[in-house]
Amino acid sequence: MTTAAPTAAPTAARAQQPKLGRTVIFRILRSDGPDKPQRWESFKVTINERGANVISCLQQIAANPVTTDGRRTTPVVWDSGCLEEVCGACTMVINGKVRQSCSCLMDEYCPNDGDTITLEPMTKFPVVRDLWVDRARVFHNLKRVKAWVPIDGTYYLGPGPKESPQQQDTRYVLSTCMSCGCCLEACPQFNLETDQQAWDSAFIGAHAISQARLFNMHDTGKSLEKLRLDELSGPGGVSECGNAQNCVKVCPKHIPLTESIAAVGRAVTVHNLKQFFTGR
Amino acid sequence: MAGPAKSSRVIVVGGGLAGLAGTVRIAEAGIPVDLFSLVPVKRSHSVCAQGGINACNDVARQQGYSEYEHFDETIYGGDFLADQHPVLEMANWAPRIIDLLDRMGVPFNRTSEGFRDLRLFGGSLFKRTHFAGATTGQQLIYALDEQVRRYEAEGRVTKHEFWEFLWPVIDDASGRCVGIVAQDLRTMQIRAFRADAVVMATGGCGLVFGKSTMSVMCTGAAAARCFQAGVWYGNPEMIQVHPTAIPGADKTRLMSESARGEGGRVWVPRRKGDSRRPRDIPDEDRYYFLEERYPAYKNLVPRDIATREIFSVCVNEGLGVAGGRQVYLDLTHLPSSTHHKLEGILEIYKKFVGDDPQHEPMRIFPSVHYSMGGLYTTFTPGSYAPASPREKHKSGSASPIDNRIGQGMQPGAVNNAMTNVPGLYAFGEANFAYHGANRLGANALLSCIFDGLFCGQSVVSFVQGEAASAPSAGLPQGLFERFVQQEEAKARRLLDTTSAPQDDPATNPYVIHRELGDEMTDACTVVKTESRLQQAWKKVADLKDRYARVRLGDAASWTNQTFSYTRAVGDMLVLAEALTLASIQRKESRGAHYRSDFPDRNDDQFMKTSLCKWDASSRQVKLEFIPIDASLIRPKKRDYTGKDSSAVAGGAAEKRVAVGASA
Ligand code: SF4
Ligand code: SF4
Ligand code: FES
Fold it and tell me: Of all atoms in ligand 1, which is nearest to the CA of residue A245?
């Protein structure tokens, strides 16, 4: 398993920049559809540009999809959008670790001639084709926690609540979650579930718990706090988190997920006690 | 008013800011919305917008700023090409839109007292840009995405994600748009959907240029299909090239104008070939060319101007860093609190280039960023009608009118943002309105949301009025079937090409697209000339020829991405043709459109919209110039050098800015 690359000493890194013109091997786990068998295919890609990343290499493969053993095949299917790690679309498992492929640079992952890189689809979501998975459940789970501020419509009614810069800072970070699903792929409690009927009782996952915290922090968003905590104290709620902390390690937006889980966990405890004593 | 027919529905195509804002507004009026998107709407291209959203605000107002000045700046910044009434309405709505977004929970940056913080942006001397870190677009679209999700949970909105728009269904009898044909990108099923009005909110066409700052779905194909179905297209030649982007292998990545708004400085070494490391070059050996050439606006001149200066410094004057096409954008002198506010974009640079902009100046170069042009839309002017156009507004002086709504456009008038096809609307970057020949920074998010909220009301009026008397639900099924069959036939023709051998680059869709992108970037961006454009015109014709023989690399009947991509390449070629033709025929320079062989603006002949129509019989673009609405401000030569009598002196400007500064 290879992990993300060095962040330090850019000048030192630049002194020995990987050579252009080198050839790297892409090993890609492919399948033609949801119920079709998976197979590995390998492609040779020449790195001709500084800043080449997994997406630019996949584009090269698409233009001329010939495997290392000389067989012409179909272009690989993958999901992408912004290409700057802000939309979350291009998430896949690279060298065994889940991450965005657009920000995965060849200079870091394959600095030498002949290096190999492995691409696989995420495993916690049903495969559509090749590297593209269906993450509808990520969005569905946002509905479970009512991840919105219940405003009184879009007519002009003046400004929203004032907010301290400290609270804004906290909310801002939580609000950068791009629903990429890395935290779910890495979580031992979150499992593949193809039956949509079962989604509402299966573990909801770190991103949705964190979003519940975000909206419970907002002055107007708070009004739905009780409903959110009802959901999160039920089946598939926060108590199913085993505290493995994998989620926070893989979140590309550095969202303090374990902090959110702890905060929501405490709120759920208080909520349950209240319900126990008042019956509401 | 009749109220909507029971069966009334609206289709919104595109789930970026404009589409989502429109969806919220229309659904709120009680009309069910079918929302179509190539991607889950939360992943739309609006997430890439960074810097902020402009609006007059209480602090700036007390310093002399007004909605009217925002309007004036936008017209002037757009080099007098935009119809003026719609821009006035947009500027007047801006503060109300900020308040609404605030209520939705957008984490706008705050002052220590808890008010919304502001930053300086290009083309203005006042702080009027609201922001959430350096990922404002992401934060705004998330807020709207959440509201739409709420309506979806309540059953008022139905999302069709991973569906591709193929064609508008236009009823021959009434000429009205009564639905769309779309394709599920997983099952590849093609089917028709009925609607009483259709809103195209499908964004820009950056992919026509190969690499741009845009997301991979911004091909412009949806707009191009409407165009080929008879919808007019305005000002295709007006393409914004953003001055500061990070060159990359797969795309260019935006380095927001907010980097300069927060104090970033653009420079190159004064001496050609100075090979010292940037931090070893002392201040007197640095050429801060924007500051020297534009003492009032400095690094915050409008984008078209900054772009041409950077281009010229590198290409004509040979002063680019390391002799190449790059200049420094320097933030190293700024305090860490400022770096914190810009974290989102500094991260992007760090991640994709490897250097830390806190310690090392960034190396940037201009790149295609935004389409000012787009589907042609109409409007009903509001109540403001001066006897003759006023002179340009003197910055900071009293506004001639107040900020009441309805002075720019008549609220709820059915033709606001409607194309020439009744019932077919275009919102956001997909239309040609508001930005003229050059868009000011932080006005895009505004125009998208404004279209959704304000023109969304016009869609509601149309559905309750004209459409209610002949609802689409009552039309014969055969009408819709015919359009489905037409699209299926096109699809089959393309799929049938898979049988042929694929290794000829001449007919490879990826190669055709790459050549198109290179050609358009070379001929149709920063500097254009007749001869180069004529060459591009031939090249596009040649590529169209080759495209007619295109060979598909994948015959799959399930999730065939190559198929959808190849189809879009054909549509990009149509847009490229319109873009090149309008660039050739507009023999003047205006905003982003700079012709070195016609370097001056020519208002007599060209203060006009270049209007493109598709001639279906010859399969060619026809172009005419039509007058604009310039009834509010008299055109004036654009000048940001500070010699201009209406521009305030640099010192005064800075004082104003300092008052608004905080945190
Ligand atoms: S801390 Fe909880 S949510 Fe995060 S990975 Fe572990 S089990 Fe999953
Ligand atoms: S919390 Fe982080 S890892 Fe999880 S979905 Fe959001 S951005 Fe992705
Ligand atoms: S494509 Fe948007 S995160 Fe990679």
Answer: 1
